[in-house]
Design goal:
Elements (H helix, E strand, L loop, with lengths): L3 E7 L4 H14 L4 E4 L3 H13 L21 E4 L10 E4 L15 E7 L3 H16 L3 E7 L5 E3 L2
Parallel strand pairs: 1-5, 1-6, 2-3, 2-4, 4-5
Antiparallel strand pairs: 6-7
């Protein structure tokens, strides 16, 4: 079974404002997740963010530097591994979804900045590749109220 591929176009908020909430929703469903970035700097920023994003909450997580992935609900990585048995893979910084299009993930979630022309072009290229591979695609746009509306 192919995973659903959801594209989230950030237009009003930043990745740091959106990602923790999406991960929380995944955890509430009882799913483990992997968050894949492309640079060590972004990975370090995400590591700090998930511990500090809310005054009254945090998301326990780990990465290669922590070890014991089997105990981690959320795993941060720069690579293609899935050491915690995640059902959802978040892809940021233009990390490609195509390598995971025929895996047993439930969902692949690409988050991209719609205000950045290069990010937008990359997301469109990924959409085209995945559509050609007959992936189950969904596109989500931010609403004025700060939620999400499915557009495609």
């Amino acid at each position: 079974m192919k995973p659903e591929v959801w594209f989230y176009q950030l237009q009003r908020r930043t990745l740091d404002q959106v990602l923790p909430n999406l991960i929380e929703r995944t955890v509430q469903r009882g799913w483990r997740s992997v968050v894949q970035a492309k640079t060590p700097e972004r990975l370090a920023a995400l590591d700090a963010l998930l511990w500090t994003y809310g005054e009254d909450s945090f998301l326990p997580h780990g990465s290669d530097s922590d070890g014991d992935p089997q105990w981690q609900t959320v795993w941060l990585t720069l690579g293609a591994e899935n050491p915690n048995g995640a059902r959802v893979r978040f892809l940021v910084e233009g990390a490609a979804a195509e390598p995971f299009a025929d895996t047993d993930y439930e969902r692949l979630i690409l988050l991209f900045d719609g205000r950045d022309d290069a990010c937008l072009a990359d997301a469109r290229a990924q959409w085209k590749i995945l559509r050609e591979r007959e992936a189950k695609l969904s596109y989500w746009a931010e609403t004025e109220e700060g939620g999400w509306r499915q557009q495609a």
